[in-house]
Design goal:
This protein is of the alpha+beta class. The protein has seven helices and 17 strands. Strand 11 and strand 12 form a beta hairpin.
Protein backbone atom coordinates (compact mmCIF):
# COMPACT_ATOMS: atom_id res chain seq x y z
CA UNK A 1 0.00 0.00 0.00
CA UNK A 2 1.03 3.55 0.50
CA UNK A 3 4.13 5.69 -0.11
CA UNK A 4 6.74 7.85 1.36
CA UNK A 5 7.47 11.23 2.88
CA UNK A 6 10.35 13.50 3.47
CA UNK A 7 12.45 13.24 6.58
CA UNK A 8 11.88 16.01 9.05
CA UNK A 9 13.74 16.15 12.34
CA UNK A 10 11.56 16.85 15.34
CA UNK A 11 11.88 17.22 19.06
CA UNK A 12 15.04 18.29 20.83
CA UNK A 13 17.46 15.52 21.61
CA UNK A 14 21.07 14.38 21.53
CA UNK A 15 23.32 15.16 18.60
CA UNK A 16 22.22 12.51 16.13
CA UNK A 17 20.47 13.81 13.03
CA UNK A 18 20.79 16.35 10.22
CA UNK A 19 21.23 19.93 11.43
CA UNK A 20 18.06 21.98 11.71
CA UNK A 21 17.37 25.47 10.41
CA UNK A 22 20.92 26.23 9.35
CA UNK A 23 21.16 25.76 5.58
CA UNK A 24 20.72 28.61 3.13
CA UNK A 25 18.14 28.27 0.41
CA UNK A 26 14.79 29.48 -0.87
CA UNK A 27 11.24 28.28 -1.27
CA UNK A 28 8.03 30.09 -2.10
CA UNK A 29 6.47 30.43 1.35
CA UNK A 30 9.63 31.14 3.27
CA UNK A 31 13.30 31.89 2.92
CA UNK A 32 15.71 29.44 4.49
CA UNK A 33 18.58 31.27 6.11
CA UNK A 34 16.93 34.58 5.16
CA UNK A 35 19.23 37.46 6.06
CA UNK A 36 17.09 39.74 8.18
CA UNK A 37 18.16 43.37 8.12
CA UNK A 38 17.14 43.80 11.73
CA UNK A 39 17.78 47.53 12.04
CA UNK A 40 15.86 48.17 8.83
CA UNK A 41 12.91 46.19 10.18
CA UNK A 42 13.04 47.91 13.57
CA UNK A 43 13.31 51.42 12.11
CA UNK A 44 11.20 50.98 8.98
CA UNK A 45 11.78 52.65 5.64
CA UNK A 46 10.37 55.67 3.84
CA UNK A 47 7.34 53.65 2.78
CA UNK A 48 7.16 50.77 5.31
CA UNK A 49 6.48 51.24 9.02
CA UNK A 50 8.71 49.62 11.67
CA UNK A 51 7.87 46.01 12.49
CA UNK A 52 5.12 45.86 15.12
CA UNK A 53 6.27 42.63 16.77
CA UNK A 54 10.09 42.57 16.85
CA UNK A 55 10.01 39.58 19.22
CA UNK A 56 8.59 37.60 16.28
CA UNK A 57 11.43 38.41 13.89
CA UNK A 58 12.88 35.12 12.58
CA UNK A 59 16.29 33.88 13.60
CA UNK A 60 18.29 30.80 12.64
CA UNK A 61 20.18 30.59 15.89
CA UNK A 62 20.55 26.85 16.47
CA UNK A 63 23.07 25.83 13.85
CA UNK A 64 24.92 23.65 16.38
CA UNK A 65 21.76 22.03 17.73
CA UNK A 66 20.61 18.78 16.17
CA UNK A 67 17.32 16.95 16.35
CA UNK A 68 16.67 13.20 16.35
CA UNK A 69 14.05 11.57 14.13
CA UNK A 70 10.51 12.06 15.38
CA UNK A 71 9.35 9.30 17.69
CA UNK A 72 5.84 7.81 17.32
CA UNK A 73 3.35 9.02 19.89
CA UNK A 74 -0.28 8.43 20.80
CA UNK A 75 -2.38 11.39 19.73
CA UNK A 76 -5.77 12.19 21.24
CA UNK A 77 -8.13 14.43 19.29
CA UNK A 78 -9.99 16.76 21.65
CA UNK A 79 -12.77 17.11 19.12
CA UNK A 80 -14.00 13.74 20.35
CA UNK A 81 -14.87 15.35 23.70
CA UNK A 82 -16.74 18.32 22.24
CA UNK A 83 -20.41 19.17 22.64
CA UNK A 84 -21.61 19.29 18.99
CA UNK A 85 -23.90 22.24 19.78
CA UNK A 86 -20.80 24.37 20.62
CA UNK A 87 -22.35 26.18 23.66
CA UNK A 88 -18.98 27.38 25.02
CA UNK A 89 -17.54 28.45 21.68
CA UNK A 90 -20.54 29.93 19.90
CA UNK A 91 -22.19 31.88 22.70
CA UNK A 92 -25.12 34.25 22.21
CA UNK A 93 -22.98 37.28 21.34
CA UNK A 94 -20.99 35.42 18.68
CA UNK A 95 -21.71 35.98 14.98
CA UNK A 96 -20.83 33.40 12.34
CA UNK A 97 -20.43 34.16 8.65
CA UNK A 98 -20.18 31.09 6.43
CA UNK A 99 -17.81 32.08 3.64
CA UNK A 100 -18.91 29.25 1.33
CA UNK A 101 -21.30 26.30 1.79
CA UNK A 102 -18.50 23.69 1.72
CA UNK A 103 -15.59 25.36 3.46
CA UNK A 104 -14.77 28.40 5.57
CA UNK A 105 -16.41 30.35 8.39
CA UNK A 106 -15.55 33.72 9.88
CA UNK A 107 -16.40 34.04 13.57
CA UNK A 108 -16.85 37.39 15.30
CA UNK A 109 -16.99 37.88 19.07
CA UNK A 110 -14.51 35.19 20.14
CA UNK A 111 -11.10 35.88 21.69
CA UNK A 112 -9.23 32.61 21.24
CA UNK A 113 -6.75 33.24 24.04
CA UNK A 114 -9.63 33.31 26.56
CA UNK A 115 -11.25 30.00 25.64
CA UNK A 116 -11.83 27.37 28.32
CA UNK A 117 -10.76 23.79 27.70
CA UNK A 118 -14.37 22.90 26.82
CA UNK A 119 -14.43 25.71 24.26
CA UNK A 120 -11.08 24.53 22.83
CA UNK A 121 -12.54 21.04 22.40
CA UNK A 122 -15.49 22.58 20.57
CA UNK A 123 -13.10 24.63 18.45
CA UNK A 124 -11.39 21.40 17.41
CA UNK A 125 -14.70 19.85 16.34
CA UNK A 126 -15.98 23.02 14.67
CA UNK A 127 -12.82 23.35 12.58
CA UNK A 128 -13.06 19.68 11.60
CA UNK A 129 -16.57 20.35 10.29
CA UNK A 130 -15.93 23.71 8.58
CA UNK A 131 -12.28 22.95 7.62
CA UNK A 132 -11.13 26.60 7.73
CA UNK A 133 -12.19 29.11 10.40
CA UNK A 134 -11.16 32.79 10.51
CA UNK A 135 -10.94 34.95 13.63
CA UNK A 136 -10.21 38.69 13.52
CA UNK A 137 -8.76 41.07 16.12
CA UNK A 138 -6.97 38.36 18.08
CA UNK A 139 -4.37 39.17 20.75
CA UNK A 140 -1.95 36.24 20.42
CA UNK A 141 0.78 38.39 18.87
CA UNK A 142 0.74 40.71 21.91
CA UNK A 143 0.83 37.95 24.51
CA UNK A 144 3.99 36.24 25.85
CA UNK A 145 5.25 33.80 23.26
CA UNK A 146 5.46 30.95 25.76
CA UNK A 147 1.77 31.40 26.52
CA UNK A 148 0.95 31.08 22.81
CA UNK A 149 3.11 27.96 22.48
CA UNK A 150 1.40 26.40 25.51
CA UNK A 151 -2.01 27.22 24.05
CA UNK A 152 -1.35 25.36 20.81
CA UNK A 153 0.23 22.50 22.75
CA UNK A 154 -3.21 21.68 24.14
CA UNK A 155 -4.13 20.22 20.76
CA UNK A 156 -1.06 18.04 20.19
CA UNK A 157 2.69 17.66 20.23
CA UNK A 158 4.45 20.59 18.57
CA UNK A 159 6.03 20.08 15.20
CA UNK A 160 9.36 21.87 14.76
CA UNK A 161 9.95 22.89 11.17
CA UNK A 162 13.32 21.77 9.89
CA UNK A 163 14.27 24.88 7.92
CA UNK A 164 12.18 27.93 8.75
CA UNK A 165 13.19 30.83 10.93
CA UNK A 166 11.60 31.10 14.37
CA UNK A 167 11.37 33.65 17.19
CA UNK A 168 14.54 33.44 19.26
CA UNK A 169 14.21 30.61 21.74
CA UNK A 170 10.95 29.24 20.32
CA UNK A 171 11.67 26.76 17.49
CA UNK A 172 8.09 25.45 17.78
CA UNK A 173 6.89 28.53 15.88
CA UNK A 174 7.20 28.48 12.10
CA UNK A 175 7.58 32.00 10.70
CA UNK A 176 6.78 33.15 7.18
CA UNK A 177 8.55 36.45 6.67
CA UNK A 178 9.12 38.94 3.89
CA UNK A 179 10.91 42.04 5.05
CA UNK A 180 10.33 45.68 4.15
CA UNK A 181 10.80 46.37 0.43
CA UNK A 182 11.36 42.67 -0.24
CA UNK A 183 11.22 41.60 -3.90
CA UNK A 184 11.60 37.82 -3.68
CA UNK A 185 8.01 37.37 -4.89
CA UNK A 186 8.90 38.95 -8.19
CA UNK A 187 12.01 36.77 -8.35
CA UNK A 188 9.82 33.70 -7.90
CA UNK A 189 7.56 34.80 -10.75
CA UNK A 190 10.52 35.17 -13.05
CA UNK A 191 10.69 31.36 -12.97
CA UNK A 192 6.96 30.54 -12.76
CA UNK A 193 3.79 31.74 -14.47
CA UNK A 194 1.81 31.69 -11.21
CA UNK A 195 2.33 31.21 -7.49
CA UNK A 196 -0.15 28.44 -6.71
CA UNK A 197 1.40 25.44 -4.95
CA UNK A 198 -1.33 23.38 -3.28
CA UNK A 199 -0.16 21.45 -0.24
CA UNK A 200 -0.94 20.45 3.30
CA UNK A 201 1.74 21.29 5.82
CA UNK A 202 4.56 18.79 6.33
CA UNK A 203 2.55 15.78 5.16
CA UNK A 204 5.85 13.98 4.66
CA UNK A 205 5.89 13.22 8.40
CA UNK A 206 4.76 9.84 9.71
CA UNK A 207 2.25 11.76 11.85
CA UNK A 208 1.47 15.00 9.99
CA UNK A 209 -0.14 17.99 11.69
CA UNK A 210 -3.81 18.15 12.53
CA UNK A 211 -6.03 21.07 13.09
CA UNK A 212 -5.56 23.67 14.38
CA UNK A 213 -2.34 24.21 12.41
CA UNK A 214 -3.02 27.66 13.72
CA UNK A 215 -1.66 30.54 11.63
CA UNK A 216 -1.61 33.98 13.19
CA UNK A 217 -1.15 37.07 11.06
CA UNK A 218 1.19 39.65 12.52
CA UNK A 219 1.47 41.30 9.13
CA UNK A 220 1.11 45.01 8.58
CA UNK A 221 -0.60 45.48 5.26
CA UNK A 222 -3.14 48.12 4.21
CA UNK A 223 -6.65 46.76 4.82
CA UNK A 224 -7.58 47.30 1.20
CA UNK A 225 -4.70 45.23 -0.18
CA UNK A 226 -4.03 42.24 2.07
CA UNK A 227 -2.34 39.09 0.91
CA UNK A 228 -5.01 36.44 0.37
CA UNK A 229 -4.09 32.76 0.72
CA UNK A 230 -6.45 30.10 -0.60
CA UNK A 231 -7.73 26.89 1.01
CA UNK A 232 -9.35 23.87 -0.61
CA UNK A 233 -11.41 21.12 1.05
CA UNK A 234 -10.36 17.64 0.03
CA UNK A 235 -13.44 16.00 1.55
CA UNK A 236 -15.60 17.31 -1.29
CA UNK A 237 -12.82 16.23 -3.65
CA UNK A 238 -13.77 12.62 -3.02
CA UNK A 239 -17.30 13.18 -4.33
CA UNK A 240 -17.08 14.32 -7.99
CA UNK A 241 -14.92 11.47 -9.38
CA UNK A 242 -16.89 8.45 -10.56
CA UNK A 243 -17.38 5.50 -8.20
CA UNK A 244 -14.93 3.42 -10.23
CA UNK A 245 -12.21 6.08 -9.87
CA UNK A 246 -12.96 6.45 -6.18
CA UNK A 247 -12.74 2.71 -5.74
CA UNK A 248 -9.30 2.67 -7.38
CA UNK A 249 -8.05 5.46 -5.10
CA UNK A 250 -9.18 3.84 -1.87
CA UNK A 251 -6.68 1.32 -0.63
CA UNK A 252 -3.75 2.85 -2.53
CA UNK A 253 -0.86 4.88 -1.23
CA UNK A 254 1.41 7.75 -2.18
CA UNK A 255 5.12 8.30 -1.70
CA UNK A 256 6.60 11.56 -0.50
CA UNK A 257 10.03 12.95 -1.06
CA UNK A 258 13.36 11.49 -0.06
CA UNK A 259 15.27 10.93 2.17
CA UNK A 260 12.42 9.78 4.46
CA UNK A 261 9.77 7.50 3.01
CA UNK A 262 6.39 7.71 4.74
CA UNK A 263 3.50 5.70 3.43
CA UNK A 264 0.10 7.40 3.55
CA UNK A 265 -3.26 6.46 2.02
CA UNK A 266 -4.44 8.36 -1.03
CA UNK A 267 -7.76 8.81 0.73
CA UNK A 268 -7.68 9.23 4.51
CA UNK A 269 -10.45 9.10 7.09
CA UNK A 270 -10.99 11.88 9.62
CA UNK A 271 -10.81 10.37 13.14
CA UNK A 272 -13.63 12.55 14.51
CA UNK A 273 -16.08 13.19 11.67
CA UNK A 274 -15.47 9.97 9.73
CA UNK A 275 -15.28 11.98 6.50
CA UNK A 276 -12.94 10.81 3.77
CA UNK A 277 -10.51 13.23 2.19
CA UNK A 278 -8.22 13.05 -0.83
CA UNK A 279 -4.70 13.12 0.62
CA UNK A 280 -2.39 14.00 -2.26
CA UNK A 281 -0.65 17.25 -3.12
CA UNK A 282 1.89 18.18 -5.80
CA UNK A 283 4.38 19.64 -3.34
CA UNK A 284 5.07 16.44 -1.38
CA UNK A 285 3.49 13.47 -3.17
CA UNK A 286 5.96 11.45 -5.23
CA UNK A 287 4.21 8.36 -6.63
CA UNK A 288 1.42 5.86 -6.08
CA UNK A 289 2.62 2.61 -4.60
CA UNK A 290 1.89 -0.41 -6.76
CA UNK A 291 1.59 1.59 -9.98
CA UNK A 292 4.18 1.89 -12.73
CA UNK A 293 5.64 5.35 -13.16
CA UNK A 294 3.55 6.25 -16.19
CA UNK A 295 0.38 5.02 -14.48
CA UNK A 296 1.16 6.89 -11.28
CA UNK A 297 2.03 10.12 -13.13
CA UNK A 298 -1.20 9.89 -15.15
CA UNK A 299 -3.47 9.46 -12.14
CA UNK A 300 -1.68 12.07 -10.03
CA UNK A 301 -1.90 14.60 -12.87
CA UNK A 302 -5.66 14.00 -12.95
CA UNK A 303 -5.96 14.44 -9.16
CA UNK A 304 -3.85 17.60 -9.12
CA UNK A 305 -5.95 19.07 -11.93
CA UNK A 306 -9.09 18.12 -10.03
CA UNK A 307 -7.82 20.04 -6.98
CA UNK A 308 -6.75 23.09 -8.99
CA UNK A 309 -10.02 23.39 -10.92
CA UNK A 310 -12.44 22.74 -8.04
CA UNK A 311 -13.15 26.35 -7.18
CA UNK A 312 -16.56 25.31 -5.88
CA UNK A 313 -14.75 23.79 -2.89
CA UNK A 314 -12.22 26.58 -2.30
CA UNK A 315 -12.19 29.66 -0.08
CA UNK A 316 -9.88 32.68 -0.10
CA UNK A 317 -9.12 34.53 3.14
CA UNK A 318 -7.89 38.12 3.34
CA UNK A 319 -5.18 38.73 5.90
CA UNK A 320 -5.37 41.66 8.26
CA UNK A 321 -3.24 42.38 11.31
CA UNK A 322 -4.56 40.31 14.21
CA UNK A 323 -6.10 37.64 11.99
CA UNK A 324 -5.87 34.01 13.09
CA UNK A 325 -6.88 31.24 10.71
CA UNK A 326 -7.38 27.77 12.12
CA UNK A 327 -7.74 24.93 9.64
CA UNK A 328 -7.83 21.16 9.69
CA UNK A 329 -4.65 20.15 7.91
CA UNK A 330 -6.00 16.62 7.46
CA UNK A 331 -8.90 17.60 5.20
CA UNK A 332 -7.90 21.01 3.81
CA UNK A 333 -4.92 22.02 1.71
CA UNK A 334 -3.82 25.56 0.90
CA UNK A 335 -1.58 27.74 -1.19
CA UNK A 336 0.12 31.00 -0.45
CA UNK A 337 -0.47 33.66 -3.10
CA UNK A 338 1.89 36.41 -4.23
CA UNK A 339 -0.75 39.04 -4.92
CA UNK A 340 1.25 42.16 -4.13
CA UNK A 341 4.33 43.81 -5.64
CA UNK A 342 4.79 46.92 -3.50
CA UNK A 343 7.38 45.55 -1.07
CA UNK A 344 5.00 45.40 1.87
CA UNK A 345 6.15 43.32 4.81
CA UNK A 346 4.56 39.87 5.18
CA UNK A 347 4.90 38.43 8.68
CA UNK A 348 3.03 35.31 9.75
CA UNK A 349 3.47 32.87 12.64
CA UNK A 350 2.25 29.28 12.57
CA UNK A 351 1.89 26.79 15.40
CA UNK A 352 1.52 23.24 14.17
CA UNK A 353 0.34 20.47 16.54
CA UNK A 354 0.95 16.97 15.20
CA UNK A 355 -1.75 14.31 15.04
CA UNK A 356 -2.35 10.63 14.36
CA UNK A 357 -0.81 8.77 11.46
CA UNK A 358 -3.16 8.97 8.45
CA UNK A 359 -5.43 5.95 8.13
CA UNK A 360 -8.22 4.81 5.86
CA UNK A 361 -11.45 2.98 6.65
CA UNK A 362 -12.88 0.47 4.16
CA UNK A 363 -14.28 1.87 0.93
CA UNK A 364 -18.08 2.10 0.66
CA UNK A 365 -19.62 2.80 -2.74
Amino acid sequence: MAPGLTETPGLRGPLAAPPLKSDAGFNKENLIGYKIEKERELQGTETIAPVTYPNYLPVWDNETERYPPLEPFEHYDHGKDADPTFPDLLTEQVEVDELTPFIGSEIHGVQLSQLSDKAKDQLALYVAKRRVVVFRDQDFASRPIQEVVDYAGYFGRHHIHQTSGAPKGFPEIHLVFRGADDRTGQNFLEQRTNTITWHSDVTFEKQPPERPSCTSSTAQRPAATPSSPTWYTRTSACRPPSSSVNASLNGGGIARRDPIQSEHPIVRTHPVTGEKALYVNPQFTRYIVGYKKEESDYLLKFLYSHIALSQDTQVRVRWRAGTVVVWDNRVACHSAVFDWEDGQRRHLARLTPQAEAPFETPYEA
